[in-house]
Write a structure and sequence with these properties.
Chain lengths: ~260, ~325
């Protein structure tokens, strides 16, 4: 079976000469389809750069990315069109990733029009409505602007925007890190339910080990642009082998005074 | 109580009452819009455009009636504060050594003495080369080191109270752990009273003696760290704790959520502020706002239909 994504020797650096810094360095990874892959790391680990390379927002310096067995660098225009429809990204900041001058209905409908997924206005509205209802945005809100929504609702709208074009892959870059805990749980459950019900593949990037444990079937731990460790949640959380993973797990605060006091005594 | 001047009356925080004893560590927790930072800033009397009703007594004197001159004697010397965003709080064009010693120099300390004090503090806070750090600028440090610089600024004049507003929020977990254990160490060594403002229940669990839970400008529950984490009575506190995806919980069990969103301060419902999101809500909650009820000398909650304690629920069953 071909993997969804195969990454071979991927590198990306910024700057030149002595100030040249690698964001990711020689990464080789396989991403199987219909799974939720969690990528976890601290700031500067390269997790976002990797995600951006996968969707084609960042051009790598070296290495290859295969999508469904085909090298992305050999894509024709038509391949790219299909790729952009199938692979959707959800960003961290629901404030800057939605166009403030477009109504919610237009934001979600835009992709449907671009990919010509609707034959007429009625169909366009039906598909827009389906996507928005799926994320819990009700009909009377369709004519509103992003500023009229809370952070959690905006993240729902950006998920609806991705859902509307019948995607196969969701790449989520820290989708809940700017949200309050009570809202975060809503969005995590929504993403989990959607990926199960629509059998989506998900690549989920987060700095939060608790979030990763809740959402991921398979986990990749990154540090300084490289993969430190990868494995099932049981392997990573119960039997981590890399010192780095262990140090992360030791530092995660646990909301239980008896446990937490002993750890930081 | 407080509201911004020159704008329609909006109560940002409403009927907040609590007291802190010397040497205690109190955490004020809440989500965005809960009023936790406004409460902290009010203790320092930093909100110039706010109008207050009520009192903030420090050693028996009301801070809200003090003149700016009197307040200058208290801020830094007696009560000091660190802020969440170190990059915008520190002066970008002033060496960190000058920023740390500023509060001593203003009070007439000799340059050499102030510098020695700062170097000592920097080394206690884990700067490997404090002499070199002293003449660097904020942008030359990482977020974790900048947070330490703010702690140095706060502690240099040996205050009695440290207010730490979200000291770990923008930091990576390993740095978070370091900063918290540093605050811990400094608090022990200097007999500090600490007020920790945080949204992170994990950080609070390991640090605080007492916890104040705020929501939409109100205190909903207040108790010892054990009472809040193990015997919480307010449905909000319990729901908040349950909705955290911790590393030690079974991921196959669906995460309980709190439906809806926090009301805007100008659009709070009549009655309990949490009513629209509460699983215990009944008619009474929509009519009158519940006041705090005490269940022990340390534990209070504001709810008409609280979660039963283990003892109460075994009696009824």
């Amino acid at each position: 079976m071909t993997e969804l994504f195969e990454v071979r020797g991927l590198s990306k650096s910024y700057g030149r000469g002595s100030s040249k810094k690698f964001a990711i360095r020689d990464i080789t990874l396989d991403f199987p389809a219909h799974q939720s892959i969690g990528i976890v790391g601290e700031s500067g680990s390269g997790k976002s750069t990797l995600a951006r390379c996968l969707v084609g927002l960042v051009k790598p310096d070296a290495g290859e990315i295969f999508y469904k067995g085909k090298n992305v660098s050999t894509f024709t225009d038509q391949d790219f069109r299909k790729f952009r429809q199938e692979v959707q990204m959800v960003f961290q900041d629901p404030y800057s990733s939605l166009n403030p001058r477009m109504k919610v209905r237009e934001i979600v409908g835009e992709g449907i029009e671009v990919f010509r997924l609707a034959n007429n206005k009625e169909e366009l509205f039906a598909k827009t409505k389906l996507a928005l209802n799926q994320v819990g945005i009700s009909d009377e809100m369709f004519g509103r602007y992003p500023r009229q929504f809370s952070g959690g609702q905006r993240q729902r709208i950006s998920i609806a925007r991705s859902l509307a074009v019948s995607p196969e892959v969701f790449i989520c870059d820290e989708p809940v890190s700017s949200l309050d805990v009570s809202i975060q749980a809503q969005i995590l459950n929504l993403l989990k339910d959607l990926s199960r019900d629509l059998s989506l593949s998900m690549i989920f990037i987060s700095h939060d080990l608790g979030v990763i444990r809740y959402i991921a079937d398979y986990i990749v731990v990154m540090q300084n642009g490289q993969v430190q460790e990868q494995g099932t949640p049981e392997q990573i959380f119960e039997n981590p082998t890399s010192e780095y993973t262990k140090s992360l797990l030791n530092a995660v605060p646990i909301p239980d005074p008896r446990i937490q006091r002993n750890r930081f005594a | 109580m407080i509201k911004p001047k020159h704008s329609p009356e909006i109560k940002i925080i409403d009927q907040i009452s609590f007291s802190i004893n010397a040497g205690e560590r109190v955490a004020i927790v809440g989500e965005s819009g809960s009023g936790k930072s406004v409460t902290a800033m009010s203790i320092m009397n930093l909100l110039k455009d706010a109008e207050y009703q009520g009192e903030i007594r420090f050693n028996g004197n009301d801070l809200l009636t003090k003149s700016e001159r009197e307040l200058r004697e208290i801020r830094g010397n007696q009560i000091a504060m660190t802020f969440q965003d170190s990059l915008s709080t520190l002066n970008p064009i002033m060496k960190i050594g000058d920023q740390i010693t500023e509060v001593l120099r203003i009070r007439g300390a000799k340059k050499a003495h102030a510098k020695a004090k700062a170097i000592e503090l920097l080394s206690e806070l884990g700067f490997e080369n404090p002499q070199a750090a002293f003449i660097k600028y904020p942008h030359q440090f990482s977020g974790g080191m900048r947070q330490r610089v703010m702690i140095a600024i706060a502690l240099v004049a040996a205050p009695k109270i440290l207010i730490a507003d979200e000291p770990t929020t923008a930091l990576d977990v390993r740095i978070q752990a370091q900063v918290i254990s540093l605050i811990n160490k400094m608090a022990k060594r200097n007999d500090l009273t600490v007020i920790l403002i945080s949204h992170d229940m994990g950080v609070v669990a390991g640090f605080a003696d007492r916890v104040i839970v705020m929501y939409s400008g109100k205190i909903l529950e207040h108790g010892t760290v054990e009472e809040i984490f193990y015997q919480s009575r307010h449905p909000y506190t319990r729901a908040l704790l349950n909705s955290i995806p911790t590393v030690n919980r079974d991921p196959s069990i669906s995460l309980p959520t709190i439906q809806g969103t926090t009301p805007e301060p100008n659009n709070r419902p009549v009655g309990c502020v949490f009513q629209d999101r509460c699983s215990h809500v009944q008619g009474k909650c929509r009519i009158e706002s519940p006041s705090l009820v005490a269940t022990s000398s340390t534990h209070q909650y504001a709810c008409y239909f609280p979660i039963l304690t283990n003892m109460e629920s075994s009696n009824t069953s």
